[in-house]
Amino acid sequence: MDLFVTFLGTAASVPTAGRSTSATLISRGGVRWLVDCGEGAQRQLLRSGIGLIDLDAIFLTHLHADHYLGLPGLLKSYTLREREAPLGVFGPPGLEQLLRTLRPLIGRLSFDLEIAEASAGLLLEESGSRVEAFPTAHSIPSIGIALVEATRPGEFDVDAACGLGVPEGPLFGRLQRGEMVTTPAGDTVAPAQVLGPARPSRSVVLSGDTLPCEMTANAARGATLLVHEATFLDEDRERAAETQHSTAGQAAELAAEAGVGLLALTHLSSRVSPRDAEQEAAARFSAVVVPRDFEQLELPYPERGEPILTDLRARSRREPVPPEGAATVPDE
Ligand SMILES: [Zn+2]
Ligand SMILES: [Zn+2]
């Protein structure tokens, strides 16, 4: 199953000419989730070439304006085109109050908003994956988001199955699902006889705004990808502590401690150069990227290769075919 993480907004607090405020799209199979919805998130979707897709859920890591101001416009657009499917919006305590406050701006919606507040725990389950919240350490109630896939069964050994007298057909499927089967000759065959060792699954963890904290490290233990904020550099460590943010160096230390596969730094202050952030982090954890807006990470299953970082706009310039899951073609 494909898994993409698309960076639609990578700036902290205020947009810059090149970076929009927080919004990250996770696409897995046909399911699309948005983590944070900063100002202009819907336009970022359009500009990326992905188009204004019907999201399946939105997760807000906390209720600072740079993480939710894009929500009223997005909901309004969905209503203008008569969306009917309900939309789940998840966030920390205070979310319901915020949406009540925004309601006069948003007006009537053509679909149900299913609002759920959570500080920790399971948010939803979807085709072999779970989305969980974990508490983080910011100046207001805040959560991080973890997408965790279920472990995949091992590779099915067709030769072994045939050798044990299992005929090709439905019995193969039952073995693959972990069931014992009986062959036409009356022998019992167990899944372990024909399946290799369980294969590692993937996980993506997004810190949201936070100090470097144990909760993120625990959630990110062994993750395929950790998307961590890096609002500051180490030279502004004190300011980071005051405002309850992290530095690029601290994010890298946490990534090293958690043993993640790849660290992506986001939520950069306009005063931080991406190159400086990357250098500072790489000194402590080498598997680091600092994505720009419209860059997308593809996360293949571990046995199929390394993550691939693509600039969606460069790709759409080369080939006019929109990326997978696109609903409309880019308008620029
Ligand atoms: Zn922020
Ligand atoms: Zn914040």
- In what order do the strands lie side by side in the largest sheet? 6-5-4-3-2-1-16-17
Query: What's the shape?
Result: globular
Helical amount: 25-40%
User: What is the top-level CATH class of the largest domain?
Assistant: Alpha Beta
Which structural class do the helices and strands define?
A: alpha/beta
Mean pLDDT: 93
Description:
The protein has 332 residues and is an alpha/beta fold. It has two domains: 3-152 and 199-318, Ribonuclease Z/Hydroxyacylglutathione hydrolase-like (Metallo-beta-lactamase, Chain A), CATH 3.60.15.10; 158-194, no CATH class. It contains eleven helices and 17 strands. It has helices at residues 41-48, 71-80, 95-106, 158-163, 170-176, 191-194, 214-219, 237-243, 248-258, 274-282, 312-318, and strands at residues 3-9, 23-28, 31-35, 57-59, 87-91, 113-117, 121-126, 129-135, 143-149, 181-182, 188-189, 203-206, 225-229, 262-266, 288-289, 295-298, 308-311. It has an eight-stranded mixed sheet with strand order 6-5-4-3-2-1-16-17. A seven-stranded mixed sheet has the order 7-8-9-12-13-14-15. The longest helix is centred in the N-terminal third of the chain and has 12 residues, at 95-106. The model is unreliable at 318-332 (pLDDT under 50). One zinc ion is lined by residues 12-13, 22, 64, 66-67, 209, 267.
